[in-house]
Amino acid sequence: MERKLAAILAADVAGYSALMEVDEAGTFERLRARHKDLFEPEVDRYHGRIFKVMGDGLLAEFGSVVDAVECAAALQRGMMERNDNFPESNRIEIRIGINLGEVIIEGEDRYGEGVNIAARLQSLADPGGICVSAKVSREVEKKLTYAFEPMGEQWVKNITEPIACYRVNLNATSPGVSKVLMQNGSAAPKRISIAVLPFSNMSGDPEQEYFSDGITEDIITDLSKISHLHVIARNTTFTYKGRPAKIQQVAQDLGVRFVLEGSVRKAGSRVRVTGQLVGSHLWAERYDRELTDIFAIQDEITHAIVDQLKIKLLPDEKEAINATPTEDVEAYTYYLRGRQFLHMCSKSYMLLARRMFARAAEIDRSYARAYAGIANCDSVLYSWQYADVSIDAILATSAKALELDPDLADAHASRGLALQYGGLRAEAAAEFDRALALDPNLHEANYFYARFFFEQSDFERAAELFERAMRVRSDDYRSAVLLACVYRSLGRHADMTRVARLGLERAELELNLHPENSSPAQLGALALAQLGERDRAKEWAARTLAIDPDDLNALYNIACTYLIMDETEAALDLLEKIIPRTKQIMWWQSDPDLDPIRDHPRYKRLVERTIPG
Fold first, then answer.
1. Domain named Guanylate cyclase: which ranges (predicted)?
2. What gap in Å lies between CA 580 and CA 557, rounded to an integer?
3. Whose CA, among 282, 326, 368, 524, lies 20 to 30 Å from 144?
């Protein structure tokens, strides 16, 4: 058996099934043309060889990993140019994964883990994006001008260990590159890489986690506004939350020169914040202040880092990092509490989140994020008939947020959700697109938009967005479990198992922290049913109904759990309580979990009573 080391490039078309459904002949012809005028010439130009072509993808090998990455960049740029003449809904976008590893040679074909990992990396890439392994990143980061942004360790199907993955940013400069880019006749400065680890909660009260997490997120946001800095995303650094880690190892794992760590102790009206910058420069400081000084402390930490790293701020960057969403620490504290409760998802916590956001808006009438939070809660509560509020009122609340901050991604996402529930789907899609353009890593935008496509049975697009939402928040079990349902409907059973196990693991962690919350219990029951663990699924279902016997969302998810386990009558007993009361008609009409009972007499009578005519 002959083996060799090779760089493997795997590429496929994102949302291929949906494109074929809309325009089969046109999509096929355009893809064939791309093979002839782009894929084959570029692979050849970078000394590669295509050794396998599938319906919507290809595999190519390169003797040089630098050539493989340069080829991937050329392919993505070529696709962007060719897509300019097509509407967004009809564009062919490719995802590319690159791995460096041993392959087995069999004639003209290549097999083995080197190929398998490249294919898995491709599935993790965003449409129009490139995802590479740590081996690839280490080999090329000092030889190419692109930035390699850590995505953390990812579990993928049929690979026993997690893979350290990196996203290739074609529009940013790698901090490891020795040469500088020349733009408009002047040298573009290299970006300095930094990771901000979650600040430790030293208050002795686990309920104060929301505050230390909020401070960490705000510091990440401020540092991300500085063009000279490459700041590792929240979803990557928060994977270290609660884990003992050596800073030098973290820096190596994330490929950064500097790491900021710290702690927060909040007691009464006082707060103590410590910060330490570790790298080739050292800085440490402790701030003992009144709680009302928290914004000044965040500002001082940001400026201390700028000073230590000898960064010269541009005027608009100074203005951006000095601006705060609110000047009132009480409003800020209520807002952070609302964010915490919003992510806990059950009816009782959603009502609590709304009260927190409303109180924040009462204290500071110009707090745009608080109004966006209210709109989010009202939309979710409206959809399950828990709020006596109209869509027009919710749209007015989101409009207030946008009036205060037209570029607030949260506000565009909340408006998109309200428009979706109001039946204005084209307008909703435009708002979700705007939110993601402003902040691609906004969890709510990815999660809500994924549900939007789920309701349209566009499961390919829903899968992409649920994957991203799941990566953005390392505690998001809902996206993982819903994604398992999507993958089951697409026939991707290995992926279904992967994300169902991840969702269950996250749900178990949340349920241990908050045993009174039915949300992780109901989603955990669904995950267990999808994994075929019937006895545990029944236990979790019973626990859900004991916690929240009147929560329509909980009842619906347990009905789906029963259907997966072929317990049809028990599921219908619950659905008869739910469907006449919920406004989420498009969801249950599209949900594959309900497919086994579409022709059941009890279900058909239920639908006829709910949707006459």
1. 7-122
2. 16
3. 282
Give the domain CATH number at 210.
Answer: 3.40.50.10610
Position with higher pLDDT, 472 vs 69? 69
- Parent domain of 247: 192-324
* Total count of domains within the chain: 2
3-class DSSP state of 280: coil
**CA-to-CA distance for 73 and 94, rounded, in angstroms?**
11
pLDDT tens, residue by residue, 98-149: 999 889 988 888 988 889 999 999 988 888 899 999 889 888 877 777 888 8
Model confidence pLDDT, tens digit, residues 218-268: 888 888 888 777 788 777 788 788 777 788 778 877 777 788 888 888 877
Predicted confidence (pLDDT) per residue in 188-206, tens digit: 344 678 888 888 888 777 7
Contact 190, 175 (CB under 8 A): yes
SS3 of 158-211: CCCCCEEEEEEEEEEECCCCCCCEEECCEEECCCEEEEECCCEECCCCHHHHHH
Question: Does any domain span residue 314?
Answer: yes
**202 and 165 housed in the same domain:** no
**Residue 490 buriedness (CB in 10 A; 0-12 / 13-18 / 19+):** middle
pLDDT at 185: 37
Stronger pLDDT, 171 or 589, i.e. the higher one: 589
| pLDDT score recorded for residue 343 | 85
In a domain, 21, yes or no: yes
Q: What is the CA radius of gyration of the chain?
A: 25
Q: Is the pLDDT of residue 315 over 80?
A: no
Handedness of CA 318, 323, 329, 335 (dihedral sign): negative
Give alpha helix (H) positions in 473-581: 477-489, 493-513, 518-530, 534-547, 552-564, 568-578
Looking at the structure, do residues 114 and 153 belong to the same domain, yes or no?
A: yes
Burial label for 491, CB within 10 Å (0-12, 13-18, 19+), is: exposed
CATH number, residue 56: 3.30.70.1230
Query: Same domain for 114 and 21?
Result: yes
Task: Average the pLDDT over 262-279 and give the result.
Answer: 85
Whether 28 is in a domain gets the answer yes
* Boundary-marking domain end, from 142, 173, 204: 173
Domain presence at residue 264: yes
Q: Are 610 and 582 in contact (CB under 8 A)?
A: no
